[in-house]
Amino acid sequence: MTPRFICLLMLSLVLPGASASAGEPASEPPPASARGWFENPTRTRGLLGSTALPLHAGEGFVGQQALLATVAEVGLSERVSVNVATAAFVYSMGRAFDDVPFSLIGGIKVAQPLSERLHLAFGVEGGSFDTGQYLVDTLNAVSVYGILTYGTPDAHLSLTVRPFLAWGTYHSGSLMVLPMLGGFIRLGERWGLAGEVALSPVSGISGTFGFATAGARFMGRQWSLDLGLLGEQQWKDTDKPSVLPGFSFLFHWR
Predict the structure, then answer these.
(1) Contact 241, 47 (CB under 8 A)
(2) What's the pLDDT at 78?
(3) Distance between alpha carbon 172 and the CA centroid of its chain, in Å?
(4) CA distance linking residue 157 with residue 46, whole number of Å
(5) Which terminus of the chain has a lower count of CB atoms within 10 Å, N or C?
(6) Residue 232 Cα to chain centre, angstroms
């Protein structure tokens, strides 16, 4: 993957999550002693994107997303959450903690339930990614987005539309758009399947590109582990797609 695509990919990684019920605060899950059921701790996220389902007030997570980004998010209320992401940890290990590029993306998200099964969320985020690469150098991006999710925390489909402005040290600003369709289905108490497809049809700072993910999610009451594949195609720069394995581990609290 090129450094430009990595920067734009981080925009999808940082997306926050949402809550489990519509119209009123979510009910408390059964106590830890209850067997055979627990609330899906990653109901707010796909493998790369997010859902419109808000974090509970005080609920949050921290972890490593898709190998690249260290992410954290916390719910300020039942409908508002804030989030940050950085690739500095991965780059610091790759460079033996010497001359580590700066990277930080943050944002805020507001969720609005429309019915018991239909949720809408919107937000804004932005940040900077210092690639340290010749003719690329620092990339910056500002994004607004909307997410529409239909279903329950254990089986849902989400459509995300994300216009964003990206610019760099040697590149003037370019307006792009990234629509994404993703879903998740829980097949057992502790596992399920997730995937997404996305396409950026407007040629901008990275050129036109698309990607797809597919994988399995393993869940505990306070953690989740995603194992999957990411296929990426940059239509202008190459005619060969790249396919990479990936994993995400997140620790949740409430």
Answers:
(1) no
(2) 92
(3) 26
(4) 10
(5) N
(6) 16
